[in-house]
């Protein structure tokens, strides 16, 4: 039944050969990987405005801050194009850092991206729901249900169904959103340049005071605006998902994304400055602009709805970024190996499920509150930017390709600027929640290292050479002792006895754990009638425990026999015909098996008796 | 770690011999089994008053209704004394009905009591919390946490610790509550008879109209008042917990409980009538009386607090009633057998846990709302009263003891009266929730029968006679084929191969499920170097599944070999040293084992490789 449901939700399994056709062309890759970055125009300029407009005199710097962010965006995008070229296997900052900076920076990058991707999902879904709720306040009491519904039944399911299906689902809303934003920008510019619309009234003010405080405010505005840049990394993490030629397509897509984002940021900011729009409580700056350009009509509502949808889709960027990243880390043994396995639909299903669970915990833990979640945000992304670009500088230094000094200069500048952004973000957000990330990243790095150590230990203990195999097989095969636990003599026990005789052991012990003396006597008598040739060992159990006394018996037996001798515990088990029948039997067989394997070096065999009704 | 916590919460295991000393004397049995019934004086008279005082003219019948209830209480208590005598093994209505009326009435009694005991816990805890909250409204938002805390960490844990400890915990509050109630009654009577307190002013009214409507109201008041009688059954269910002489002690305890309850009901009702107290919104009638007698001083608050505590303790009655009842039904095979097992502390731990889960579901499902829960209440108890007393009539008829006709008359009257109460309760409460019980009881009875049928099927399929054993062992032992799944050649596989050779099978198949062609080739090459004498069977798996292709292979193999041949699947497994290491490995071995046992008639053996780090 579980299978049927999952088939219906996830779809039929896909063959390995389908992998190539599951790869995505550029026009699909753009919305899939960039909805996070692109959607940020909805709140990016506002984040700058909220700081600058607190002091009217700082208004003049709005344009300068936007230009600085666009330049930074250009540097970061250029840098990531180079990451893609230098590292076509995907894995972004993590892979490139592993290659040029060593394990620890790579793990810091991995941990940073891990926390930021999960935050992306939680923030995007929560803010999408917040948008819907501000339109339909009647939904407010159900906001968490909405969050979880979108998370599980839209994002998780569609991503489990595979890349192609997820993209088809998500492509059009992104393009419609882009169309709507550009329509707004062009209409605004048309009004400004052709219709000569009157500019907004600028409040008279003194010349801006250039003190330390002003500089700090400008920096904070800049850092806030940088939140538009989360998600730029996603393409570099997902190169293997692109259609061939993968690197070229991924680089072009990065460029297109950066160009679109820059145009939107620039256009919207220009119009905001021209019309001199100010942040108003409860209304986004973006919706103020739309209203100013079109009036409060059908276009206004349409753009609002598209903004809500694009926010949900921004979460999808993380679904295309984190699972491939985890698969890289799994291949290197820093996270559990199964994150590297492709599921039946060729998606990295374990990573998708982990991301969903992580985001659900964050949403529930913060009660779907965007303001609190956003405080944790952006530290991770800029940390990974810094690491990636530092790694690229070393890359250029080592390869010394044509023009390597220019490239190194670009990446070096990027590294310095993003380091600067990390420091600004940490200072301005530390007490509001960024400290959680400062704790989380070292903890994650510690876990990655522990996992890696375990896998190394496992490899050392599992590795088998021809000589090792011979050494295992050479010592004389010892004696083989079979132990059969007998609760009472039943058909299941008879089948186990038959099997025991078949494998011709040196000796068979039947053992009865005696929780009730009278019943024990009865079992002993019955046994002696059935099988006088095999002695029934009675183990007293005054506390009515079943497994503990048996384990003590086996422990003593194991010590008595030689190391080359083998002990097999044959558990007579019946297999009920229907699933619910299992509820009617205590699971002492399974518990016994698990505890024996946990404590003792013996083989445990289950001899099933299959019930027919 | 789990063990340490549970030891600390539950205590050390107790030996079978401790059973006798775990048995309880009368003075402890009274509060343990009767807190439910005794606490009902807190709301019983009020339930009558709420109906009668709606028409002032009916006031005159208050006394009559109370007298009727006390008479009914006497009949029921007398009847249950006789149940105890006729059925000293315990099990109450269920056991006596099984003996004299047959399976179906017994199962109906069992289902009725099952639902009513769970309701008792949910209602008592919810109303205890409601009482605390009306004193400390600041706790209101946490009422469900309080409910669940009391349920799990007081009631469940103390009952799991065993009867003696639970009783010690619960004895004193009950006696203090009884003392407080009798103090109120004696003070009131002292004021009435010695101080000649002025009686309450009776509103002038016409003579009571004796129409159909009046009769219905009187019946409803009577039925409502009967809620005081839930819990009378508990002693008869728990006879085996009493100190010897068990029956005598249980009968005496029943008598004492009925006498105390009758005195309290009578005294309180007399004072209510004398002072002519009327129900007031938000204040219980009981607290009105206490306030009238003592004024609003320290005694008033003390009695209020004791009332809260006794309500929590009323839930404990169910903990002493349901688990023994379930153990009786388990012995007969109508509920899963493990409800008949005593845990390490000699308590019926599975029944205690089931009751806790059931009550938690009800509390959470009804959001801890007493008013809604109480509508489901009392149907079950009176249904079981009726069944028990009908059974007793047949008992007397069969045994024809001295004075049997008088006894039969008492029980017969009881049966008629309680049938009448069931009908009244059903009619007056049906639409408010009693319909749920009307649905639940048949469903439970159906489940009991299905369970019983399954156990009969199991017995038939497991039963082993000497001849049956010989038949199983006689056919020639066939060939033995071993199948070893090989993911890659590791030390674990080497150990499995060694073991396979030790049990000397007819043939060994090593099989590799090939999810990746390139990797498959590598494994094949490695294998041929290690063990050229055993062929590695390659099973292609284009959908990257591991278990399905292997199960299909085993299925075909099973069909190819003879019925007397055995197939063993040897699963090479490694046992990590630390628990958290298990999280780092996919559980494909365990899944494989479960699915093979579910689908196929083959032996599954786990050959462990124990990791040292």
TrEMBL record, chains A, B:
Organism phylogeny: Bacteria, Bacillati, Bacillota, Negativicutes, Veillonellales
Pfam family, one: AA_permease_2
Top-rank lineage group of the source organism: Bacteria
Main location: membrane
GO molecular function terms noted in the UniProt entry: transmembrane transporter activity
Annotated source species: Megasphaera cerevisiae DSM 20462
InterPro entries registered for this protein in UniProt: AA/rel_permease1, APC_K+_Transporter
Name by which UniProt lists this protein: Amino acid transporter
GO cellular component: membrane
Localization terms from the record: Membrane
UniProt key word Amino-acid biosynthesis: no
PANTHER family found in the cross-reference section: POTASSIUM TRANSPORTER KIMA
């Amino acid at each position: 039944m579980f299978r049927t449901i999952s088939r219906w939700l996830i779809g039929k399994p896909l063959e390995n050969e389908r992998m190539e056709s599951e790869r995505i062309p550029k026009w699909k890759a753009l919305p899939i990987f960039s909805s996070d970055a692109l959607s940020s125009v909805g709140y990016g300029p506002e984040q700058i405005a909220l700081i600058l407009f607190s002091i009217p005199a700082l208004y003049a710097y709005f344009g300068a801050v936007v230009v600085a962010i666009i330049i930074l965006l250009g540097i970061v995008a250029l840098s990531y194009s180079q990451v893609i070229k230098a590292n076509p296997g995907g894995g972004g900052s993590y892979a490139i850092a592993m290659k040029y900076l060593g394990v620890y920076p790579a793990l810091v990058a991995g941990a940073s991206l891990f926390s930021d991707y999960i935050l992306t999902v939680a923030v995007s879904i929560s803010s999408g729901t917040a948008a819907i709720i501000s339109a339909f306040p009647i939904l407010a009491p159900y906001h968490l249900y909405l969050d979880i519904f979108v998370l599980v039944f839209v994002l998780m399911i569609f991503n489990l169904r595979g890349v192609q299906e997820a993209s088809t689902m998500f492509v059009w809303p992104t393009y419609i959103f882009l169309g709507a934003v550009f329509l707004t920008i062009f209409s605004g510019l048309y009004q400004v340049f052709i219709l000569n619309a009157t500019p907004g009234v600028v409040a008279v003010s003194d010349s801006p005071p250039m003190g330390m405080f002003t500089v700090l405010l400008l920096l904070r505005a800049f850092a806030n605006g940088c939140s538009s840049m989360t998600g730029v990394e996603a393409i570099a993490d997902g190169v293997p998902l692109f259609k061939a030629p993968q690197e070229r397509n991924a680089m072009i897509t990065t460029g297109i994304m950066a160009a679109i984002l820059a145009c939107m940021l620039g256009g919207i900011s220009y119009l905001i400055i021209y019309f001199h729009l100010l942040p108003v409580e409860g209304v986004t700056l973006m919706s103020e602009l739309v209203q100013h350009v079109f009036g409060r009509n059908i276009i206004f509502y349409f753009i609002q709805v598209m903004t809500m949808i694009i926010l949900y889709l921004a979460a999808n960027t993380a679904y295309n970024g984190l699972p491939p990243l985890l698969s890289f880390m799994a291949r290197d043994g820093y996270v559990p190996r199964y994150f590297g396995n492709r599921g039946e639909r060729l998606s990295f299903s374990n990573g998708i499920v982990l991301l969903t669970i992580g985001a659900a915990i964050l949403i529930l833990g913060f009660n779907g509150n965007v303001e609190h979640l956003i405080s944790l945000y952006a530290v991770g992304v800029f940390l990974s930017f810094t690491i990636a670009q530092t790694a690229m500088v070393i890359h250029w230094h080592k390869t010394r390709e044509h023009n390597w000094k220019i490239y190194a200069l670009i990446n070096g500048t990027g590294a310095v600027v993003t380091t600067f952004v990390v420091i600004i973000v940490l200072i301005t957000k530390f007490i509001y929640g960024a400290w959680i990330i400062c704790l989380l990243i070292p903890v994650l790095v510690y876990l990655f290292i522990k996992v890696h150590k375990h896998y190394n230990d496992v490899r050392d203990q599992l590795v088998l050479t021809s000589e090792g195999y011979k050494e295992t097989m050479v010592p004389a095969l010892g004696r083989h002792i079979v132990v059969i636990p007998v609760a009472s003599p039943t058909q299941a026990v008879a089948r186990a006895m038959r099997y025991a005789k078949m494998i011709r052991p040196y000796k068979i012990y039947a053992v009865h754990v005696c929780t009730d003396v009278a019943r024990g006597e009865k079992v002993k008598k019955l046994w002696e009638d059935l099988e006088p040739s095999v002695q029934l060992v009675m183990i007293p159990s005054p506390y009515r425990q079943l497994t503990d006394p048996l384990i003590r018996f086996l422990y003593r037996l194991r010590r008595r026999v030689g190391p080359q001798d083998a002990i097999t515990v044959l558990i007579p088990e019946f297999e009920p015909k229907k699933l619910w029948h299992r509820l009617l039997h205590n699971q002492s067989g399974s518990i016994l098996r698990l505890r024996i394997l946990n404590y003792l070096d013996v083989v445990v065999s289950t001899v099933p008796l299959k019930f027919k009704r």
